[in-house]
Write a structure and sequence with these properties.
Strand content: 35-45%
CATH architecture of the largest domain: 3-layer Sandwich
Radius of gyration: 19 Å
CATH superfamily of the largest domain: Rieske [2Fe-2S] iron-sulphur domain
């Protein structure tokens, strides 16, 4: 995974560890106590238990089977507190546009500049297709966007199709656009909240 790839919604990861079964990688994504996203191999290197079933305390995720703990860099400690060194595969992480992005640790790719000049992030949708189904469709802007008079000519959409295990796919659709100037700042804040939280597509 040499390029940055969106793998999970930020809000989902904030609730607890999330397993992401990619076509070529099986990972667990979690947040440390400081809110920093982290990603490791999905299975504990000790006995293969899923780390997504574990718990996060401070800056480590702890396996529920034998109590091994791992920091965001893959450094492990067993239940007796003994340092096990670098024993879990880790990934570089980045949080942007409501998503957690990952790439292989140390891969030289810089995070892409997705937002065009003069626009701002409006909305992100992340959907996982059922087994054997094709990628979720990305629809045109619906009534929410039209309600707030977003200029269609200045609406920019980026979609990532993420191959998952078992032939499934996920789609991350990210929308950028221009929000008309609001004379009352509070109104502008409400508009931005609505655009990011309410259904955006038809």
């Amino acid at each position: 995974m040499t390029e940055w790839c969106p793998v999970a919604e930020r809000d989902a990861v904030a609730k607890g560890p999330v397993r992401v079964e990619l076509a070529d990688d099986d990972i667990v994504v979690f947040k440390t106590a400081t809110g920093t996203p982290a990603a490791l191999q999905a299975h504990c290197p000790h006995r293969g238990m899923l780390l997504s079933c574990g718990t996060v305390h401070d800056d480590v995720i702890t396996c529920p089977y034998h109590g091994w703990s791992f920091d965001r860099y893959g450094r492990g400690t067993n239940a007796a507190g003994q340092d096990r060194g670098q024993c879990a595969v880790s990934y570089d992480t980045h949080e942007a546009f409501g998503l957690v992005w990952v790439k292989s640790a140390g891969a030289p790719a810089d995070f892409p500049q997705l937002c065009p000049a003069g626009l701002e992030h409006l909305h992100t949708r992340f959907d996982v297709a059922p087994e054997t189904a094709g990628p979720p469709a990305v629809g045109p802007v619906g009534r929410i966007g039209r309600l707030f008079a977003i200029r269609p000519a200045r609406l920019h959409q980026i979609a990532y199709v993420l191959p998952l295990a078992n032939g499934r796919s996920a789609v991350a659709a990210i929308y950028f656009g221009h929000i008309p100037d609001m004379r009352i700042p509070l109104v502008g804040s409400i508009v931005r909240w609505a655009l990011r939280r309410l259904p955006f597509e038809e």
